[in-house]
Amino acid sequence: MERIFLNEHLRNKFGERVQRIPVDPGFVCPNRINNNGCVFCSEQGSAAAWLKKGMSFGEQLIKGEGIARRRYKSKKFIIYFQAFTSTYASVKELDRLYKEALSFPGVVGLAISTRPDCIDDDILDLLSEYNKKTYLWVELGAQSMIEDSLLWMGRGHSVSCFTDTVNRLRSRGIEVVGHIIFGLPTETKKDMITSFKDFISTGINGYKIHALHIIKGTQLELMYRTDKFSLLDMNEYIELVEEAIRLTPKDIVIHRLTAECDISKLVAPLWVLKKDAILGRIKGDLGL
Ligand code: SF4
């Protein structure tokens, strides 16, 4: 089966390995400020584990570049604005940060992770400008295309908000990478696949999937300990992901099929730590 994964996509585009450098310039998230945040969201808001509090933006770039060079021998980089909501700031501040990131040696692009309800027209104009200057993609969490699931997760946006934002970005030629979760207790396996079909038909250019897992100190941990809802087992997850890949058009780039988890912060399920085994099985089963 032919499907394209992110590393291969970037290698085709730039002629060599390109490594993402995750940064945390100190953004916050409106869903944490105005509501209770998503039930699975941890204090770190998905920032990379090596990013320590107090590091300046410049220090993060230098440290990230060092790791990328040592571990992956990369000389080209995409700066990945990953933590919290990376468009939740003034246009001026975003412009300053994006400019600084692009001026760092070896940087060939930007990846901006945000919420679908955090791209107003001024930010869209800014992103369009950067899209002309560099390789850019915007990551948007849908997490599900089922309204009841969005409510259960406390996402604070609707399905139509996600689809509208994908349309607005795509109408400016900006690539969109969507995020989706398998294993929400509000969904049957059939619902998950239906949700996935709706997700890939929105016009996204790439996606990330991960299994619902529970991190210490989150609202989800409390809900899990109280309600004892069941989580997917590894075989169920693999079967769902394999079905999702079969449904994926060849031009959609697969960015991620499992989450990165810190063992010291994980409550359940423990199998999500077996990233290599999961990917190996999926690739072997599908001949990827
Ligand atoms: S949108 Fe992201 S950062 Fe904000 S509460 Fe949800 S998971 Fe956390």
Give an overview in words.
The protein is an alpha/beta fold and about 290 residues long. It has one domain (about 5-285): pyruvate-formate lyase- activating enzyme (Alpha-Beta Horseshoe). The protein is about 45% helix and about 20% strand. It contains 11 helices and 10 strands. The chain has helices at about 5-15, 30-35, 55-70, 90-105, 120-135, 145-155, 160-170, 190-200, 220-225, 235-245, 275-285, and strands at about 5, 20-25, 75-80, 105-115, 135-145, 175-180, 205-210, 215, 255, 265-270. An 8-stranded parallel sheet has the order 1-9-7-6-5-4-3-2, with helices on both faces. A two-stranded antiparallel ribbon has the order 8-10. Helix 8 (about 190-200) packs parallel to helix 10. The longest helix is centred in the first third of the chain and has 16 residues, at about 55-70. It is globular and about 50 Å long. About 35% of the residues are buried. The mean pLDDT is about 95. Iron/sulfur cluster binds near residues 37, 45 and 84. Iron/sulfur cluster binds next to helix 2.
CATH architecture: Alpha-Beta Horseshoe
Major sheet attributes: 8 strands, parallel
- Gyration radius over CA: 18 Å
Element order, helices and strands?
EHEHHEHEHEHHEHEEHHEEH
Ions and ligands: iron/sulfur cluster
* Helix content estimate: 40-55%
What is the class in the CATH system?
Alpha Beta
Number of helices: 11
pLDDT < 50 stretches: none
- Average pLDDT: 95
Strand-helix topology:
Layout: E1 4-5, H1 6-14, E2 18-23, H2 30-34, H3 57-72, E3 76-81, H4 91-103, E4 107-114, H5 121-133, E5 135-143, H6 147-153, H7 159-171, E6 175-182, H8 189-200, E7 206-211, E8 214-215, H9 219-227, H10 234-247, E9 253-256, E10 266-268, H11 275-286
Parallel strand pairs: 1-9, 2-3, 3-4, 4-5, 5-6, 6-7, 7-9
Antiparallel strand pairs: 8-10
The site of iron/sulfur cluster has 11 residues, from helix 2.
